[in-house]
Specification:
Largest sheet: 8 strands, parallel
Number of strands: 14
Radius of gyration: 19 Å
Number of helices: 10
Strand content: 15-25%
Strand order of the largest sheet: 9-8-7-10-11-14-12-13
Helix content: 25-40%
Distance between the termini: 6 Å
């Protein structure tokens, strides 16, 4: 939406500009184009009064650069405010001229499921309808439901969430998209083909011993060394894939806690998203064990999706 300065895109303007599959394509194109996530700048985190956290995430690649300033305030939902706030400033790469200002929370709500969708393209079982167990009922859960449907046919969706009403609302929404859906419990992972965790949990959500050897688990809810959604039992027996080894070994509590327990070593990571996308790792992952994709969120992903949104807005005439 153009104003007196650079174009500004709120959540309403960004909605519908980019489907989950198209956002995943943008990420894949960046990786195939030679972007190396291992060289992505480290996220800067600053604790703020009231228990919140301010994040600064810059990136530059090709013709563009950008930076996301994001706030995470766990107390906001009780105030009727979103837990995640922020803005994304997109810049022309060669000149660093500001090009657009995007709603940071809307960008994150699209980017994170797109990363997961890209991983699922390469790791999730194919050729048959799948059973999804989805932990969480917030914006990321809705985004991940749509992302999973964009890359795989789903026979059933089981929603597990702390608030029963929110879980039922998400299950009802899932039914409008086609698959059967209901609420459930953590024990439902025993029959799952896909398990997706997008919660604010700091402790494991389910017993990893229940996950079948052919299942794929995606965990996106935490980026802190002491927080995790999956347990040591799952991590120990799974083939583990990450966005970046360096980022995972800084921030992924799902891996760092088991390592601190002595259950795994730093070499336990099987591969990265770039390995999967560029064909260095086989489609379908490692046979005979669960596949675990642990995402912490990275600045290069924000940039790739922000550029795709900006270019889509230009093509649609919204700039």
């Amino acid at each position: 939406m153009s104003g007196p300065g650079i174009p500004q895109f709120g959540a309403a303007e960004l909605a519908g500009l980019l489907a989950p599959a198209a956002a995943a394509d943008a990420l894949a194109d960046a990786l195939r184009g030679g972007l190396d996530p291992e060289g992505c700048p480290q996220r800067t985190a600053l604790a703020v009064p009231g228990g919140g956290e301010l994040l600064l995430m810059p990136a530059a690649s090709g013709s563009y650069a950008g930076v996301k300033i994001a706030g995470i305030q766990p107390g906001n939902p009780a105030r009727g405010l979103p837990r995640i706030t922020g803005s994304y400033l997109l810049l022309d790469g060669p000149t660093l001229r500001p090009l657009a200002l995007l709603d940071g929370a809307a960008l994150t709500t699209l980017r994170t499921p797109a990363v997961s969708a890209l991983a699922l393209r390469h790791l999730a079982p194919a050729g048959r309808p799948l059973r999804l167990v989805l932990f969480g009922a917030g914006p990321q859960a809705y985004g991940h439901l749509e992302a999973a449907l964009a890359v795989r046919e789903l026979a059933e969706v089981v929603v597990v969430a702390r608030r029963p009403q929110a879980a039922e609302e998400l299950a009802a929404y899932a039914r409008t998209l086609g698959p059967a859906a209901r609420t459930g419990t953590a024990a439902d992972v025993a029959g799952a083909d896909l398990v997706v965790c997008c919660t604010t949990a700091r402790e494991p959500l389910f017993d990893g011993r229940l996950v079948g050897p052919g299942a794929t688990v995606v965990a996106v809810g935490s980026h802190e060394p002491g927080a995790r959604e999956t347990d040591t039992a799952l991590v120990r027996r799974a083939a583990v894939y990450v966005e970046s080894r360096a980022a995972a070994l800084r921030e992924a509590g799902d891996l760092l806690v088991p390592e601190a327990e002595g259950a795994i070593g730093p070499g336990h990571i099987t591969g990265t998203l770039a390995d999967l996308v560029t064909g260095r790792m086989p489609v379908g992952g490692t046979p005979g064990c669960p596949q675990l994709f642990k995402s912490v969120g990275m600045a290069w992903e924000d940039l790739a999706v922000a550029v795709a949104l900006f270019e889509a807005a230009g093509a649609s005439g919204e700039t």
